[in-house]
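Ticket opened by: R.M.
Priority: normal
Category: complex prediction / small molecule

The reporter submitted a protein together with flavin-adenine dinucleotide and asked that the result be attached to this ticket for the collaborator who will pick it up next week. Submitted input follows.
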Amino acid sequence: MLTYKAPVADINFLLKDVFGYYSHYQKFPEFEEATPDLVDAIFQECAKFCENELLPLYQSGDKEGCQFDNGVVTTPKGFKEAYQQYVEGGWQSLSHPVEHGGQGLPPSLGMVKSEMMGTANWSWAMYPGLSHGAMNTVETHGTKEQKELYLTRLTEGTWTGTMCLTEPQCGTDLGQVKTKAIPNGDGTYNITGTKIFISAGEHDLTENIIHIVLARLPDAPAGTRGISLFIVPKIQTDQQGNLGEANNVTCGSIEDKMGIKASATAVLNFDNAKGVLIGPENKGLECMFTFMNTARIGTALQGVCSAELAYQNSLIYAKERLSMRSLTGKKNPEQVADPIIVHPDVRKMLMTQKAISEGGRAMIYYAAKLVDEIEMAKTQEEREQADERLGFITPILKAFLTELGLESANHGLQIFGGHGYIKEWGMEQIVRDARISTLYEGTTGIQALDLLGRKILLTRGKSLNNFTKEVLLFCKDKSVLSKNPHKRQMNKFIWPLSKAVANWQQYSLRIALKAKKNRDIVGSASVDYLMYSGYIVMGYFWAQMAQSAYEKLATDVENRDFYRAKIKTAEFYFNRMLPRTKSHAKTMMEDPKTLMQLDQELLSFL
Ligand SMILES: Cc1cc2nc3c(=O)[nH]c(=O)nc-3n(C[C@H](O)[C@H](O)[C@H](O)COP(=O)(O)OP(=O)(O)OC[C@H]3O[C@@H](n4cnc5c(N)ncnc54)[C@H](O)[C@@H]3O)c2cc1C
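Result attached by the on-call engineer:
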């Protein structure tokens, strides 16, 4: 019942008009093939695959789920065939380096591909999605031999990868990891322990699965400083990649869970499984950050995907469903009632969804450009600069966009009324599937601590200042009162944005000062601080989109309605969503006392 059309016009608007992606590609000789013609052709093919192959499996995959039988996991009907088509189409290799069989196109194009696939079918997209993180980890930290062996197959898509961090006693606090790695003296290690909640940990899509596993060497220091990283294949291979004996990794079960039912979430038992070290001893967590950062942006994307799918479907419904009359007089006199889209409350939900999916997409594409820059950096300084900007924005993207994606999914269900609660329509599935996004890859609370604790307080606001400098530069440039009419029109966005940025800096400083006296302020303020920051960041991108739309209105007569819609959505965002910062600001500045003063014994009298 659900429909999906890839939003190619919105995507192109961001790539071409807002972010100037084609001149960005021209800066790097490696990306010279990424011309508008080639990119358009890729998008068309990708859209076809998503709309015709992946979307039809979205609801059936949820209904059927994955099956577990004695260690063997079977994915829902059609998943394997769609994966085969994906591999044959070269989709997995699209934006990976040529030397390992990739097509060498920019990572940012891979992000657009992932967006389309993830919106059409998030559960399916998780299987190839996890592999990208595994590939980036091997690419960054692997030896020449490891790259040759693992990257080639992962890039083709004939093998997939996983990320094995979580254990029964710990998901957030990885310092508690117990899995052991005993050296065999020949460069291999025996890995023993239990990992839980491993996405794509076992399945029938590929002949082999490459697990990237956190474990402890003998006598390793306690806590996070004693964790190393290992590559552990499901099936052992020779250096040429020919499959040999099964390794001692077994799937104990898969989880019966709330959503993403077609994505297998496995319990993996490692029982003296053979593995090799990747990266330096006891530096596993640092190496794993490569994986986790890729995965965090990938999860932020899930917020946009949920928002987009919910929006597209609730918009269709809101135009068709008839209920009562518009408060300003009949809009549909020949019918028994007006469609619900005429009611301001329904319109508010739709506009919120639209602002979230288009604003969220802009935030992701901004980050994708930084990923390109990191990958192509010629000097350490260039890499560090782009890395710092990406590191600052990543927790905001992950937590803010997944919280808003969930909000949009809920609005979608609400617009369908009682029918939204009925499975047949698919809207409740979007809510169930979106719910995980605020949990895995670090919960919203943990992202918020990362932002406020590590990225703001630890750097004494350096990353924040770099980002706000960029926003203020934009504001200064666009607000100059000039004869050019669209520059004057931009003031309705520029003034509130400049004010919000100034407040952001002030509040950050005030929190830093308070934290000197009471560390609990960091934990009590952090989630509100993150959401507050998220609304300002999204405001910056809505202002940029409005600016580009004003510019295009003057030249592109054919698509004027499209640009007008962007400007009106920006107005909606600034008038009805940016003000949410006020409530977050009030709460984040409150004394932690009101959270902590009630003795835990007095929390309940049962
Ligand atoms: C469907 C699914 C797929 C997953 N896929 C993978 C995967 O592929 N690989 C993998 O390794 N893991 C995976 N996970 C695990 C996931 O990343 C963890 O569940 C998540 O990070 C949270 O860890 P936890 O469940 O142990 O919760 P806990 O760490 O026990 O946290 C419980 C609550 O306490 C809060 N909390 C904890 N510590 C603090 C603190 N210091 N300050 C403030 N609040 C705190 C958390 O925010 C949370 O609200 C998956 C989980 C699920 C459900």
